[in-house]
Amino acid sequence: MEQGRTETAKPEVAEGWEPRIVGFLCYWCSYTGADGAGTARIQYAPNVDIIKVMCSGRIDPELVSTAFAHGADGVMVCGCHIGDCHYINGNHKTMARMPLLKRLLADLGIEPERFRHEWVSAAEGQKFAQLVTEMTEQVRKLGPLNWPGIMHSRGVGHGQDLRPWGE
Amino acid sequence: MDSNGQVSGKLKIGMYWAASCGGCDISLLEIGPHLLELIQVAEVVFWPCAADFKYEDVARYPDGYIDVMFYNGGVRNSEQEEVARLLRKKSKCLVAYGECAVDGGIPALANLKTPEAIYDASYHENPSLDNPDGTEPQPITECPYGELEIPRLYPQVLRLQDVAHADYRIPGCPPSAERVWEVIQLIVGGKVPLENSGVVVGCYDKSVCDECPLEKRMVKIEQFKRIHQARPEPGWCLLEQGIVCMGPATRSGCGALCIKGGVACEGCFGPSGESEDQGTAMIGAISPLLNATTEDRAAELVNQIVDPAGYFYRFTFGSNILRGRK
Amino acid sequence: MTEAMTRNEQVRGEEPRIGVFICHCGGNISDVVDVRRVAEEIGKLPNVAISTTHMFMCSDPGQGLIQEKIKECGLNRVIVAACSPSLHELTFRRTLNRAGLNPYLFEHTNIREQVSWVVEDKELATRKTTRLIRAAIGRIRHLVPLEKRHIPIHPAALVIGGGVAGLTAARDLACRGIEVTLIERGDHLGGRMADLGHIFPTEDQANDLLRPLIQEVLATSKIRVYTHAEIEESAGTIGDFHIKICVGANGKPGEVVEAHVGVIILAIGLEEYAPREGEYGMGLYPQVITLLDLARELVKEKPGQEFTLNGRPIRNVAFLHCVGSRQHHGVHRPGPQGKINDYCSRYCCTGILHSACELKKRYPHLNIYEFFEDIRAYGRGHEEYYTKASEEGVRFVRFDPLRPPCVEKDPRGESPLLVRSIDRLTENMEVEVPADLVVLGIGLQARDMSKLIDLYRCSVGADRFLLEVHPKLRPVELAVSGVFLGGSAQGPMDITEATAAAAAAGSKAAAMITQGEVEMDPFIAKVNEDLCTGCRICLSVCPYDAISRDEEKGIAIISEKLCTGCGTCAASCPSNAIQQLGFNDAEVKSEVLALLGVPEQEPVGA
Amino acid sequence: MSSPHVKTKEGYKRFSIDPVTRLEGHGKIDIFVDDEGKVADCYFQVPELRGFEKFCEGRPVEEMPRITPRICGVCPEAHMMASAKACDEVYGVELPLTARLLRELQYNIFFVTDHTTHFYALGGPDFVMGPDSDPATRNLIGLIGKVGVEIGGEVIKCRQWGHEAASIFGGKPVNPVNAIPGGMAKGLSSEERARLEEIILFMVEFGKFTLKILHDIVLADQKYVDLILNGPYYHETYSMGLVDEQNRVNFYDGKVRVVDPEGSELCKYEPREYMNHIAERVERWSYLKFPYLKAVGWKGLVDGKESGVYTATPQSRLNVADGMNSPVAQEAYEEYFETLTGHRSGKKPVHHRLAIHWARVIELMNAAERSLELIRHPEITHPENYRVICDKVPSEGVGTVEAPRGTLTHHYVTDENGIVKKVNLIVGTTNNHAPICMSIKKAAQTLIKPGVEVTQGILNRVEMAFRAYDPCFGCATHSLPGQMPLIVTVRNPDGSVKQLIRRD
Lengths: 167, 326, 606, 504
What we know:
Chain C is an alpha/beta fold. Chain C contains 16 helices and 34 strands. Chain D has helices spanning 52-55, 64-67, 76-90, 97-128, 140-147, 149-170, 190-219, 222-230, 274-277, 314-320, 327-341, 356-375, 428-431, 433-447, 456-467, 473-476; strands at residues 12-17, 28-34, 39-45, 179-180, 183-184, 238-243, 255-259, 265-269, 278-282, 289-293, 310-311, 396-403, 406-414, 420-426.
């Protein structure tokens, strides 16, 4: 798939830009793991804002693309390890969804590093903290995704101030 | 009436063809015998493909003069946007007619490419091309007797709502004649208000599976197949047979015609139910059917699906959540 | 219509009036997060009627403030930004309830564990807090009043395990007139306690306590007792379990009996740590035994002043603490599952001190040494054993956990064994103690519960013991409702603690049964019949087979009772025809949008 | 729609026909008239671009027969068939007999429907209602009003049954989906066959009926015959079309035959060789690609034997053929040539553009008769042979059919996984761009004279010049952007020909 010459020109990074990463976490393992990181006072990057769901099985791919479409620079999906899902095997369903979701996002030009899917148990506060810091740095390297900006520049959603191509 | 807009009792209707293929205009003729009923109660005041009214005639109409205006096709260039705005002004009820106007339709597949790439294909790459100087079109051209203007190509295919409010939206490529006639009766019969919020009509909320005659056997997908390589077993759900079918994620109302025609649903009525995005909906629909207990196996299976983006979003790149490619 | 119901009806129609209450947590939060600034910024957002802070939101005055503001400002939605919801979500839901507001019009934002404790930079922490609360506002605008589910409970209980805990639980239930089925895998009731003699801290004979309990259990008609019995199958969920029990006779597979119960108590206990061949001389020297071996010895009253073991007179006894407990990576070899027991087994310190005193009482001339890491005699009447032992002249050597003592043959042959260690009490002096008997204070560990874990989808801790819902708030409940933890399947306990846990589990279960029904969180999935096509995709994703297809209507139906509210079906439905209450698309999506700073488009209300 | 700020030079008047109507797609004509009232210049623009050739890259080739019909919803079957034939070649498969029969059958039934649409809804009204009639009535509805509801009913019935037939084959009446690489997605049951035969029998009658209408309303009216024979609508160009082994017209399959203005064969080639015979010219002063015959060469927008300009229309199909493959149509064919060239044999080509309407009706007749022959073929309902599995490694393929509006060619190159890498489309209407431009120019210059008031009737007659071709700019703009200026020679006062305008 070819890269566009205008649209994908990397936007210059604004002063004080910080990666915006949305983290969808299952309550029983990953969210508790994140709490664990807190209880252990493990310091990590503040860039991942957590959205709590009961089970990672609830994480509808639609939520992921919604996050990207509205300005997330990255999305992280965390659930219980295979085998210790609070809902027996809800996370198997998550697991089965990921490959197709990853592929679709890649086909739409979203760098693979911007979307991560990890298993984090209630005991793995340390791991969670590392993941967050690691991903934050990866996304920082890539720079802003700025999907709303891209679409705005193409006139999506507001025909009025369209800037026609070729002018 | 004549083109000067002298008022007569009949409902004034029109149809415009924007970035689309004309299938919508044809589908309106599809109502067949009802056409004769229609012309008893309504008269055409603008329909380039079938009647001799010009833009200047429309411009002369007073605002809100047209009762119901069907706009088919997406918005790909400045002319289509200008006409959309003109027609919005002149019409009480503007209807986004057909998949292109509602969701972008097939032309919106262009949102996977850049305008430059499209120009290159047309002017620099075609094998049968004879273009030594590499000529490309320009928006305004000087000629000895004045200027000539061509509409400017927009960088993205938009749907009608992006440039003008649509009171109703009728999905489908093309819409189903039966459904359209139902809608026309409602509107013409004054059973629904002319002004509305852009409600989707001319289809059903449930998905194509609702109209699909094939049987589900609750078996998992072992392998994905492509239509030219497989003889699907008659009577059995195509998706379960590993042939990607958009049925589960697509509005019904068509009567599952493609499936009855022997091929999988390609999703031309847009997302079903309250989903906003056929692609992510299909992920939800396909993943549970994979015969995979590990992520690697799941990946191995779904990699057999060729071109998910192009297939899942064949008709909705004007309206899906991401609306195109980075 | 009850008052609450009418209020709920009103709320559905109203524009959201949101109260945001931000907790300082006594500095835990406010030292890092500028909570006042956050309150100010949040106060400017649409639909926020009040945004304020308090030193301790969970305290009575804090909760009082919330209730007062609900009334004063006519709030119909409440957000508390404080610690983790796992700690106080329930607390605040109750607060709303007391104020006459539906408890599910509440959102708990975690700004302690997930902000102030993990972000140093005050500015970034403050901004993150604002984002998270903004997200909560996005979500809460769409929340609607929810009612807990009510599930009938069949008035009968199954108790698994015939040890002192199981017996206690069964007895307590029976006393309340509840039908109990008690199954024990082994051949006798009473479990491990039956092997013991005098027990701390009361010094009763174990069997003097156990016998009447067992008799009571066997006597009552309310309790069906099966030994050599194990669960074969279990169907159904809370309130309505159908269980097939295989009852064998001395190992031989026997007939299958069935039990229909509403609740289950797991009193399956645990197992002793089995020292490895050669660990502290175990298996190499007959003079090395475990604490429980010794206890079994002491049950036998021996005549005379001489303490003998297998005919050999004993003069020097060495006790080793923390064998198979508080293990360290690199120092101790992992067990079969590749895990070490890094936890404290809790009974052994007092157990050893108690045995030491017992020996001293019977054989005052014995020389007794204890090699310990720390003495943890934490329970009532436990410390006394330490004092007593010291007075009695028991000598204590404090070893270095990273260099534990070693047990070897005495080269000089004066005594069968030598225990060598460094003593941190005397500036790490090398000490060498002759021993005729070495007693290993072995720890306790979880037994293999894989079958039950599969059957009842129990969550398991890193220490391989079963995990309660919350150690403080719901200490004897498993996340899988209807199943309770009665004793040491949950972690190492002494008899006192195990019986207490069993009694607690018993009364919880009894309460549930006498209530006749349970309330469960309302976060279940619902099918929108107008949108559902009956495509069956959800049927294949439900982990609990809670979804079936109504062939008549051609749509999916979700069983309220079986649904546990994971929301997997909601995420799979291609038409979004399934919505999870409390986590529906509108709620979660606008949470995402608000988090990203997208202003709310569609109006909420009605 | 030109925005007001577009300038017109001092001393000139601009007449805009915007949009040109009763054609498929978008068109606009700007005529500049100097103060003497003489046409200075005339521009024909098609303001549309959709970029199919590009966005089809990356799609699986087996999906092309379902995607490309959306190039034109008026003639979707044409694109589906051309695409499917290209796919067959990409996968190197030979179609079983039944598959071939089914495809040709579906295609001929489509031809009946499509030609009906054009004759009655698009082109017809000019004749039935008259070129100068009120534009508000100059359409199908007006036509029904004039010829009566029974006839109107017949027209609608023909279209309706045509689409019922289409849905029997392809599920969907518009944008069918049933042609796949290796044949058809579904066979024909005997019930379906019976119903189709019923429909086709009606169509045969309808064909005869339409021939009659043409005679009664057009050929019987001397002023129309004059218009056809002596009107401003005449160009001598090369003709192109598909023919079978006996050089008879075939819409679905065969070889491409080209004859010169006198009717002698220039070449006859396999579709896959199209690149050796035609090229698409891009002139610096034009944004439109002009296909032309390589063998003759590009001489600009001029007719005659020396110019590589050719037409691909019903008329040119009749010109290249030695006859029709069905009796009634053959009769009509002979009458047609006798009337217009004086030779029943048809060895002299017809160049009167308005007569394309007549040729179209003859094709309508032929398609109906051919359908009847095919539906009665014993193999048509074979339970298996409606398709074969494609197991060869895909590479490259060309598929050509006769679209109602001219020879249509799809050309695909794929990777070894059957993913499209390159697409080239030469659609029916594109073939005719040069002739269409020439016809409009000639019409404008002949009809708009000093001292003659430019009425909308006159402007409509200008439109009639291209309507004859039944151009489909839905098709033509599958990839073409914006403007297609029509450049005319501007005469010096002495009448000598000025240079063509170049734009830089």
